Amino acid sequence: MSNALKKRKIAVLGPRSVGKSSLVKQFIENHFQESYYPTIESTFAKSVVYKGVEYDCHIIDTAGQDEYSPLNAQYAIGIHGYVLVYSIASKNSFSMMQILYDKIVDFCGVSKVPCVIVGSKCDLTMQRQVDSKDGEELAKANDCAWIETSAKNNINVGKVFELCLQEIEKMTSPNQTEPTKSSCLVM
Ligand SMILES: Nc1nc2c(ncn2[C@@H]2O[C@H](COP(=O)(O)OP(=O)(O)OP(=O)(O)O)[C@@H](O)[C@H]2O)c(=O)[nH]1
């Protein structure tokens, strides 16, 4: 059997300022920054052990999207799994989740993709606009995983990427390294 690490490409998508970069930075670099710098795009690599297997994860932190942004083909082709982020303090960002998920599955021409829906900034309890129950129900309706996180307080940050690997592995047959069933193929 090969000792090569299993490569998994994960795209982190969501509206502006919901905390995508903060989530990724907390996961990769273990720090949190209060100031806001809009992202263009950054890719990070980290090896993650999930269920005793080491995965070489490439995480793409993307620019904030709105409902009119076309999906960049780069975020659909060759991606194994998705992390879709809304802020629990923004109902508008939550309403983008279904739109974004539908854009991805439409682009890929599949009925579902491995995905974790993330309610970020869960430390902002006084500003909460999205009930946990609504997040959970949305995820269930789309057969996605769901979790609430705080990059600020380092709550559930690692769990997001474990859940993403879990969703990817659920849809990937053993020993398969290329995204197939759930991801786009260039014809
Ligand atoms: N209270 C709190 N603030 C957060 C959290 N995560 C991010 N923020 C703040 O929210 C703002 C936006 O965070 P970013 O991580 O830059 O958001 P983004 O989604 O990457 O933004 P774009 O690059 O525009 O897409 C920053 O001021 C962060 O400090 C969190 O868990 N709790």
From TrEMBL:
Keywords: GTP-binding, Hydrolase, Lipoprotein, Magnesium, Membrane, Metal-binding, Methylation, Nucleotide-binding, Prenylation. Its main location: membrane. GO terms for cellular component: plasma membrane. GO terms for biological process: signal transduction. The keyword Transcription does not apply. SUPFAM superfamilies: P-loop containing nucleoside triphosphate hydrolases. One of its GO terms (molecular function) is GTP binding. It is a lipid-anchor. It is found in: Cell membrane. InterPro entries: P-loop_NTPase, Small_GTP-bd, Small_GTPase, Small_GTPase_Ras-type. It catalyses: GTP + H2O = GDP + phosphate + H(+). Belongs to the small GTPase superfamily. Rheb family. NCBIfam families: small_GTP. This is GTP-binding protein rhb1. It comes from Gymnopilus dilepis. The lineage of its organism: Eukaryota, Fungi, Dikarya, Basidiomycota, Agaricomycotina.
